[in-house]
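Before the break, one more example. Copy the sequence into your notebook; we will annotate it together after we see the structure.
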Amino acid sequence: MTQFRVGSVPYVNAAPLIHDFLSAGEVSPVSVILDVPSRLPERLAAGEVDAILVSSIFALSQPGLRAVAEVGIASEGAVESVRMFSRVPWTEVRTLATDTSSMTSNALAQIILIERFGVHAECIPLPPDLPSMLAQADAAVLIGDVGMMTPVPEGVQALDLGEAWRDLTGLPFVWALWVGQDGLTPDLAATLEAASLSSALGAEVTHTLEELRTMDDPQQRQRIEDQLASEPELVALTEVLGVPVADLTGLRGSLLQRQREILSLIARDVDWPRERLDYYLTHTMTYALDDRFHKALRAFGDRLVHHGLLPQVNVPHWVETAETD
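Here is what the structure looks like once it is written out:
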């Protein structure tokens, strides 16, 4: 039954995008290979997979890539799991220990230091251990579980890089995208979107349905219902859940139930406090992309070039689910 092959990072923030495929096993339309970020581009180039979930800086640095237009890993502000620490005032940072597992976060840290604090720091790649990093540099970048769970030592200040980017630009930040080459077709994009909608976007859709449920104006209600019914993403979601758009109460209940089930499944494999995990996946992280997120990605790319962190930007071709070849 497998139609597509994708590669993904094995991190918590990617779990809502791939858990449907992993849990379905042999009957899944998508087989998933989990690998470290540095290996995924090699798998794509070798034709082992049709698409990979990779950092935004990779998507911007490679010419000729395609990217799913409406699904990614992003945040509206504070991201919690990507932080920069400093043992000196930010304006006095001269050396920056960079986390060897993330090119995007390291580049973002340099942009924040330059544009917000006016300093150009020398980067020193080091393993992600804060005491060791700060023993060798003025500041350090940590990401992922380590970035989130590491306590701030006395005399050290910390900065959430997602929040710092929003304060600097007023925009959200796109951390990762589904990218590919010719194998990333509209059909695959639709499959990836349906999987994300069935999990991570449940809270957003549920909020809209809750507003409809309490709406008194019948004309306004009908207008929103018609709009929802015409959205291909919601149509894909109702097919996954087996509940028609017209059944607002049933759809809302199914969404909430599915979200609880998904979070429970993810929690089994993650050593996080359950409350923190739930909040991180349903509020901190955002998985639905639109033009505002595309604008934010371009703004990041422009800054990468402006500050000499990339020679040029290659914005990927956005693959829409309704696109025809």
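DSSP finds 14 helices and twelve strands in the chain. The longest strand covers residues 66-75. Try to locate both features in your own notes.
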